[in-house]
Amino acid sequence: MPPAAKKQRTSHTCSACGWSTGKWVGRCTQCGEWGTLTETSAVSGPRTTATTLTTPATPISHIDAHITQARPTGIDEFDRVLGGGLVPGAVILLAGEPGVGKSTLLLDVAATTARSGRTVLYVTAEESAGQVRLRAERIGALDDNLYLASEVDLGQVLAHVNAVTPDLLIVDSVQTIASTQVDGAAGGVAQVKEVASAVISVAKERAIPTIVVGHVTKDGSVAGPRTLEHLVDVVCQFEGDRHSRLRMVRAVKNRYGPTDEVGCFDLSETGIVGLADPSGLFLSQVNMLVAGTCITVTLEGRRPLALEVQSLVVPSPLTNPRRTTSGVDSSRLAMILAVAHRHLGARLMDADIYVSTVGGAKMTEPAVDLAMLLATMSAVEDRPLPVGTIALGEVGLAGEIRSVTGLARRLQEAARLGFTRAIIPASTNTPAVAGITTLEATTVRDALAHAYE
Predict the structure, then answer these.
(1) Can you give the pLDDT at residue 62?
(2) What segment(s) does the record annotate as region Lon-protease-like (predicted)?
(3) Residue 100 labeled ligand binder
(4) Is residue 50 part of a domain?
(5) 101 among the known binding-site residues?
(6) Residue 355 shares a structural domain with residue 337
């Protein structure tokens, strides 16, 4: 009997997000872009049947786990985020905005790895080899074990991997490399999938740790199809304000380590340097009495960071007063202002309120609620908080102060930086930290009273 004939099936795929539909439409219903749907054809036939087994399954206890141990890169802050270093065969996607410093960081990682005696292949598809050479000279990243290739064709990239046989592969970036075997321009859904699949296949087959650079969209998410993040082993976000030297790397996905760690870096004209103790960047003057400021300690993974919250309250000539935030959640601030009005009697309806953090830090955890509340009340009363005071706690709608995680680590960091008083939630197992006097508060009224004791 002749084999069943294969049927041709036509669909339309969005080049921006990868969404597909059976018929063409002018606007993608998934991402909202216009004119991005292109026609694609797929051949459907009989289902795949089992083939001859080539590699039998192995008992899990017989698997050698030593081959997957992480190897440090020499950049301590980057190793912290990765969970110890680079795992052989692991594919890492580093995403960030243009100009944030991704290439500078990876060039530093490549040079440090090359100086340890390992071979590194750096493939640049966005810049010429001369441009990368000038940057490497500026930041001191020149080494004979670091090989540089400027290619935009996937076949040539794989040929360079065969010729160099590197111990570390860096591809900058996945959206600018294209395969001649796939239709579409570089950066399209089909091209990104093909390039990522080919690079991942080579990395797994040869146990080469690979770092791939990815672009981001306007909302900060990784550009290209969502499957790109599922294919790789680690997804890191490179964050930073263009007007600040501080840069942060966060692990969004990590198959080999924690996903709540953050690495801090200082980016300058001479390169990028890890910051083992970045707390000072987020404080203005610890011993300066200024109304409308309060210090808190947040946890980024297992790392405590002391941050300063600043609040400014001024009379408003507007019918709808301004509520402007920088570094804090605006909806969280609105809730705290409502609590201050209801439980502390603060009249804020006719005032413009500005709340910001120092150093461009972003505070998202609820543990900073109490610091925002006390900073705002200090600005309303024009009365500075006593020197050496920090505030920790989540504020509830009923005016209660809720407990926070990692209280001992937060207090230890505050004591190390010279703070002497801590307003914290009431608890039966408050940790005792040398040099810190803890003032327990059950409600926001208790916290405000303790603030000026």
Answers:
(1) 83
(2) 352-453
(3) yes
(4) no
(5) yes
(6) yes
Task: With H, G, I as helix, E, B as strand and everything else as coil, classify residue 10.
Answer: strand
453 annotated as a binding-site residue: no
CATH code of the domain in which 362 resides: 3.30.230.10
Residue 52 placed within a domain: no
Domain that holds residue 330: 281-451
Tell me how far the alpha carbon of residue 126 is from its chain's centroid.
22
pLDDT at 219 over 80: no
- 7-14 vs 351-357, strand pairing mode: unpaired
Residue 54 lies in a domain: no
Q: Read off the pLDDT of residues 278-329 as tens digits, 9 standing for 90 and up.
A: 877 777 755 567 899 999 999 887 788 899 999 999 999 999 999 999 989 9
Is 189 assigned to a binding site? no
Give the Cα separation of 90 and 287 in Å (integer).
47
Instruction: State the Cα angle at 253 between 249 and 254, rounded to 5°.
Output: 90
- Cis peptide upstream of residue 284 (ω within 30 degrees of 0): no
What would the pLDDT profile of 420-442 be if each residue is shown by its tens digit? 999 999 986 888 888 899 999 99
Edge-to-edge strand list for the sheet holding 37-44: 20-21, 7-14, 37-44
CA 239 to CA 222: how far, in whole Å?
13
Question: Given a cut of 70, is residue 7 above it in pLDDT?
Answer: no
Structure tokens at 427: 């608890």
Token code pair at residue 284: 């203005």
Domain boundary at 276, 309, 333, which? 276
103 is an annotated ligand-binding site residue: yes
The DSSP annotation for 208-275 comes to --EEEEE-B-TTSSBSS-THHHHHSSEEEEEEE-TTSSEEEEEEEEESSS-SS-EEEEEEETTEEEE-
96 is annotated as contributing to ligand binding: yes
pTM: 0.76
Token reading at 180: 């001649």
Domains contained in the chain, number: 3
Indicate whether 304 and 392 sit together in one domain: yes
Instruction: Compute the average pLDDT of residues 221-243.
Output: 83
H/E stretch holding 352: strand 351-357
